[in-house]
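Researcher: Go.
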Amino acid sequence: MPGALAILLQAGSTLVLDASVGQRPCQSTPDEVIVCARSDRPTTRLSMTIAGHIGTVLVEPSGPRYLMCNPDFIARSGITGDSPVLIASVGSVDVVGGRATLPVTILGQSSELGVRWSSYRTVEGADCIVGPRSLGYRSVIFQLGRDRPDALDTVFPFDRYDRTNMVYATLPVGGAKIAMRIELAYPESVVTAPAARVIAPVLGGSMVGPPRSEMIINGVARPVRTLALRMPLAIGPVRLASLSARIVDYGQAQNLKTLTSDDGEADAVVVKAKTDPPAAQRLLRVGRDALANCVSITVDLRARKLTLRC
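Model: Structure:
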């Protein structure tokens, strides 16, 4: 299958996988599983079985604890469960589908895991998506390329787990905190409207270009515009001069709007409102566009921290 992973070494609690091209094999340490990927690839894919049905699962650094699967795989496998249930809310869009707890085998380890699905197609090139918390290891390293002498480690403490049990890290911006997740399957980095309202006044942000549709998560697309920054957003050594900003979130177009030419500075982000949105809505998705010069992503579940090496 495309992007198939070759097992290089398996000894005790250490598993080394390599999906890189022209790179040296990944190095492992006890209690770690290292998943090699390239930042220009969609990300890593592993073989799995769900209740005896063979499929492919995409592993994401910030993926959910349960398996979120495509509807065609669920139909083909004949899987049934509780339905209808609310799977997630993406802005004003409620994702409704089914759920079940089933025996799942990934990386040779079997356990009972939650499996969820909806009518939306969740992932391309695989049947399901999952995060590090379902792999059964203390630490998961996503190797993006060769290590370099000038590479630096930046450690981000975990922010929280949301309703989907995705891994979020804390990114401080101007005295506020933004919950950050890393998803290699998406090329663009995107912020919610409440996060853009925090970032814009601190870094001199303004909206440019027309609205467009951007895939966010769980097969749901939302309207975005480009948020251009006079000062780049720093994510460790990574610098982002612009982001895609969701312009309508949580059912309220007022969360992020622009001034008209009659109001003064065109396309300046309005940051004042009658009420501030909850901090839980300040979200940043870091896509692979930001990680071209990065070496690895380490998700340490025991120490509750994410380390970005770039």
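Model: Residues 1-23, 250-275 have pLDDT under 50 and may be disordered.
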